[in-house]
Amino acid sequence: MKLVHFYQKITVWISSKETFTVIYRARAPYRILIEHNKTYTSKGTPGNTEISIHNLIKSHANHFKKGRRVRLTAGWYNADDTAHIIHQVVDDKISTVTPPTESAADSVVTFDITDGQKYDNLKAVKVKKSKRVRMRASQKDLDKAISAYNSKMNTDRRKWIDEHPHASKKEVTAKNNYYSNKKKNYATNARSAYNKQRKELNNKKKYQIKKSYEYLSFKKNTKASTIVKKVAKESGIKLAKVNLNYDRKYTNGYTAKSKPMKVIEQIAGDSDTDIIYRNDAIYLEKLDSKRKLNLYIDYTTGLLEEPEYQADNDSKVAQWQVTFLYRSLAVGDVFHLKSKAVTGWVIVLSGSNSFQSGSAPSTQVIVELYSEYKSKLTKKINKKKKADRTAKAKADKKSKAEAKKKRTARAKNKKSK
What we know:
The chain has 417 residues and is of the alpha+beta class. It has helices at 58-61, 139-163, 169-204, 224-235, 260-270, 370-416; strands spanning 5-13, 19-24, 34-41, 48-54, 69-77, 84-93, 96-102, 107-114, 126-134, 207-215, 217-218, 222-223, 239-243, 249-250, 254-255, 274-278, 281-285, 292-297, 308-309, 319-325, 334-338, 343-355, 362-369. Helices cover 32% and strands 35% of the residues. The strands form six sheets. Strands 3, 4, 7, 8, 18, 19, 20, 21, 22 and 23 form a ten-stranded mixed β-sheet that branches. Strands 2-1-5-6 form a four-stranded antiparallel β-sheet, with no helix packed on it. Residues 381-417 are annotated as: Disordered.
């Protein structure tokens, strides 16, 4: 299909039943200009969509308020409107609204929609645990009580001396002996009560339920996917999808002591999986999961210039910046690119879809050759798998040695009896 007429449609929900819609097609009666720029990345940073609408009357501009739901769709019609390619750009709540600007020739309302929610302020997850423990007399409480009583007697003794500066040596000695005897008597009575309580509890074997709040922890060999799902659920993070490149097992278990998003970021890094913000949720997914598009980009289908090699990228494989006529793409999409610089199937790592007045609607993305991306990822995962196998072998060896040591100790004890 030849891309001729650019189309945009924006709808804002005023209430659950009432909406307001603006359509742009650069011809009557749809001449209200809508500009937008949507960014996206695989670096674990929320994408953002900035939208500007020109020449709305004030009552219509006031519909676009922070917190209201907005849906933007965009795409193309052919020359005679018999075919079209229209995709959803964003469907989420308005994050911020810029105060409207007005001039004699134009008025503009601008607002932003940020993908996902901000979870950075969430505290580390602690869960309530109950444990049945045997009641025993506490030596620690006994020592604490004796120490507190001694401190009180010492304070009283010093106070008496301060209040009787002319007391004789005999009187001071008598007072010191008085307080010393009180401390001894208290300690004797306290220890006696402690011993009685200890004997009683040992004979009756009483139990109590002890409650505490502890960091969320996971047993040995728990999978990464299990950890991130549990952490997200307990902390209220919207995790729409978990499809890890490498669902590694934590040989020694895992304790989530950090903030929830830090935990999810660490697990995602361990699993070589990108964190992607899409609309109001977070996705941990393989970038190439069923995202191969029937899209072929070359100079006949909208390529605007030769791809630009990215010399300063951190990847170990070549990356390219590609600019072509507007398509509603996202992180992980795979399409076919044909140019002088690079040809083949490529995967989108980041980019933007944009329409600005005075410029052609365009998409600009950073890509890698799909085959090189998969090869790089496979090598990284295989390296981690090998390291995990080595760690597991060491842990198993240590566990067997400890078990053998216990069996030997038990055998010696039986012989000695």
